[in-house]
């Protein structure tokens, strides 16, 4: 009835707003962290879906450090399992990156302030966890760069 009609009328505007929030979050991650990968096609996906792998970070450790943020690890198909997502494997993701993937769901009731808060928290926690990672230190040493500490990817 009326609720469906109103939802249908608002859908294009709301989808564009949610897409803008998702892109703001993605751009922050890409600007301030190295060794990340957005999983899946950037355009052929739901506007509020963002799945990102953070190299050298266990997704479960990141989730535990972000208890004040609603997140999931892996894909929606396997969020209750500790096994790497078969969906992420199917798109060619290595197990270690699949284990470091986090799924962000952005919806109608999220706003700009929440996106800024989540970006700030995730960036800080990824950096903290990487400081503790011997694998990440080895990766940085192999690249011979301090780009990781500046938040920029090596060229």
The whole-angstrom Rg is 17 Å
With strands numbered from the N-terminus, the spatial order across the biggest sheet is: 1-2-4-3
Distance between the termini: 55 Å
- Give a count of the beta strands, DSSP E runs of length 2 or more: 4
Principal-axis shape: elongated
Number of helices: 7
Beta-strand content: 5-15%
Please state the average pLDDT score.
Answer: 85
Characterize the biggest β-sheet. 4 strands, antiparallel
Helix content: 40-55%
Poorly predicted runs are none
User: What is the N-to-C succession of helices and strands?
Assistant: HEEHEHHEHHH
Structural class: alpha+beta
Feature tags:
155 residues; alpha+beta; 4-stranded antiparallel sheet; 4 strands; 10% strand
Question: What's the structural blueprint in terms of helices and strands?
Answer:
Blueprint: H1 2-32, E1 36-38, E2 49-54, H2 59-65, E3 72-73, H3 86-90, H4 95-99, E4 101-105, H5 112-131, H6 134-143, H7 147-150
Task: Describe it.
The protein is α+β, with helices and mostly antiparallel strands. Helices cover 53% and strands 10% of the residues. It is built from seven helices and four strands, in the order αββαβααβααα. It is elongated.
Q: Would you kindly provide a brief summary of this structure?
A:
It contains 7 helices and 4 strands.
């Amino acid at each position: 009835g009326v609720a469906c009609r109103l939802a249908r009328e608002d859908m294009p505007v709301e989808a564009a707003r949610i897409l803008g929030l998702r892109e703001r979050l993605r751009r922050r991650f890409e600007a301030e962290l190295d060794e990340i990968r957005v999983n899946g096609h950037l355009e052929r996906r739901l506007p509020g879906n963002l799945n990102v792998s953070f190299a050298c970070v266990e997704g479960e450790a990141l989730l535990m450090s972000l208890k004040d943020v609603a997140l999931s690890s892996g894909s929606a198909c396997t969020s209750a399992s500790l096994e790497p997502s078969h969906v992420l494997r199917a798109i060619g993701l290595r197990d270690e990156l699949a284990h470091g993937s986090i799924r962000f769901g952005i919806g109608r009731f999220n706003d700009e302030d929440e996106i800024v808060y989540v970006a700030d928290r995730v960036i800080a926690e990824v950096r903290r966890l990487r400081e503790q990672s011997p694998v990440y230190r080895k990766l940085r040493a192999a690249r011979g760069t301090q780009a990781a500490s500046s938040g920029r990817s090596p060229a």
